[in-house]
Write a structure and sequence with these properties.
Blueprint (H helix, E strand, L loop, with lengths): L13 E3 L11 E3 L10 H77 L4 H21 L16 H4 L11
Antiparallel strand pairs: 1-2
Helix pairs in contact: 1-2
Length: 173
Amino acid sequence: MFPDYDDVPAEQLGLVLSGDGGTFWASSWRDTEDHALEDDLAQILEEIRLRHERQTKNRKAEQERALVRRQQEDEDRVVATEQYRAQFVVNTMKSQAKKWEEAGLLRRYAAAIREAAAPFEGQQREEALAWAEQVEAEASRIDPLPRAAKVPEIPGPSYSDLSPFMKSRSLYS
């Protein structure tokens, strides 16, 4: 596919180094009529070694920064999880209090229905008492007491649960 030699041999050879790592001596060398590329071989090798060392140092520094970032994210995740747990408990408290108030309101309403049905007779009274029973049943169904009168079980938080509490936003990115 590729010939072993050029059809027209180059009289002057050139070498170009590219990529990251910076430039110490030069990035390119050429044969000229009054200067041979072989004379620059030590400098070329030194340039390659220096660039390699810089890239190795940069890679190591980036790995150290990534490790510090992961450690910070882990610490942030622990703090965010605690904040999430506390907020979950507070939200559950408020939700249960609202349901408790609503259940109390429904029970008072059922009592008022029974009171209003007292003078009725026959089917009208039965319908009113049946309605009061339905209202009372709904109140019992939504009332968090006594079955939920304890600290709630807190589910494991997802990333979206923790994100409002995270200091570092780079989690999972």
